[in-house]
Each structure stands twice: as structure tokens, then as C-alpha cells.
Automatic annotation (TrEMBL):
Organism: Flavobacterium circumlabens
SUPFAM superfamilies per UniProt: Quinoprotein alcohol dehydrogenase-like
Pfam family, one: Reg_prop
Protein's UniProt name: Hybrid sensor histidine kinase/response regulator
Coiled coil segments of this chain: none
Length: 127
């Protein structure tokens, strides 16, 4: 598998994004866990994971079909998508990069431009 992204979280787990899913290696237990997209709620939005960024108690994954946010406490994913009818959404569902600045701003790079997160209220992200 091609490795598209790799990130170590604060607990020491290694997260690996590929074209065929997201993998998490736990060096303490020497085990891998694989996360794949399926049509049920709370899974990653696509198996093609292009970037990974830990932000607080969450891991943000840029995929070929939107932004997926994994809550490390609940172990659930929420996904954020582009909408042609809502200008406050992402510019594109192809997420290539994610950055949290030292001042706390969150930037998302897509195939159609750069987006800055403006607010997060009731689970809805605005860009």
C-alpha cells in the first residue's frame, strides 16, 4: 500500500493513511487497527486518507471525500463536506492538508483552495 500520510499522536500511536484505509499502530500492544469507510454513521468518509493532524482530543483526516474528525474519547468519526448550496462549507471534498497554527487557527487545504475554520457550533464547522 502507498503511504499517503503518517502522524504520531500524543499517546504514541502511529496513524497511517493509505489509498485503502486508515491504520493505527499501537506500539505498547504491538497491534494494528484498521478503519474503513462503510455506509453506516460514524465511520471515516473515504478509504483514501491524504493527511492527518491531531488537534486537541481529536484526529482530523483529510480524505478524497471530505474531512473526517475522530474523537479519541468516543472513538467515533464525524464528517464535514462541501456543499454547492452553502458557502460556509469546505471549498472541495478533496482534502490535501490540515494545519493548526500556534494561535489556534485551523486551515484546511483542498483541491479548490485554502479554507480557514471560522467557527464550530453544535457540531457544525464553518469556513
Amino acid at each position: 500500500n502507498d503511504i499517503l500520510a503518517i502522524e504520531e499522536d500524543t499517546s504514541g500511536k502511529i496513524w497511517v493513511g493509505t489509498y485503502n484505509g486508515l491504520n493505527c499502530y499501537d506500539p505498547v500492544s504491538n497491534t494494528f487497527k484498521r478503519y474503513l469507510h462503510n455506509k453506516t454513521n460514524h465511520t471515516i468518509s473515504s478509504n483514501a486518507v491524504w493527511c492527518i493532524r491531531e488537534i486537541g482530543e481529536e484526529l482530523w483526516f483529510g480524505t478524497s471525500k471530505g474531512l473526517s474528525i475522530f474523537n479519541k474519547k468516543t472513538k467515533l468519526f464525524t464528517s464535514v463536506f462541501h456543499s454547492d448550496t452553502d458557502a460556509s462549507t469546505l471549498a472541495s471534498n478533496n482534502i490535501l492538508s490540515i494545519l493548526k497554527t500556534k494561535k489556534g487557527a485551523i486551515w484546511v487545504g483542498t483541491t479548490k483552495g485554502l479554507c480557514k475554520m471560522i467557527s464550530r457550533k453544535n457540531g457544525k464547522l464553518s469556513f
